[in-house]
What does this fold into?
Amino acid sequence: MLKKLLCALLLVSSLVACKSKEAFKYSQDFVKKEKSLEPDITQTENSVSRFIAAGQYDSIGNAGERMEKIVQVKIDEIKKEPAPDVKEGENFKSACIRYFEYIKNMYSIYKTYGRAPDEASREAEMQKLQTVVAKKATVISDMQAAQRRYADANGFKLENK
It folds into this structure.
């Protein structure tokens, strides 16, 4: 009888450990996707600064479109992969998608800014961009909170970024 109880406890603890590992891996995959964008973001931001200084609006539009496509690939990857069957899995997946959609939206504005037909239209796009950028801290905070809830619900610690 004691052997059966020990086997059952071992089996249950193994299942819990597997779920926790699965949840941790999904979280790490998100971090990898996010970090994989950093070189492209840095390059784009540097290029856009030069393009603005030179008045090369078409180049700004092209840079925005390029980043839109890069970020959309990440969004598609997240949407395609099912959320792990763990606590807060679907909520975390939704938070990941919202976060990447926020990033994509910034570059969509770069694209429309660069392709705007006149200065008044560019000014309107710049206002949109300023509104979106003003929300950056909130978007990051919301993403981090969702990730903490997910980690807490599944018994793993987040690594400091």
Summary: Residues 15 and 34 are 29 Å apart (CA to CA). The chain has a mean pLDDT of 89.
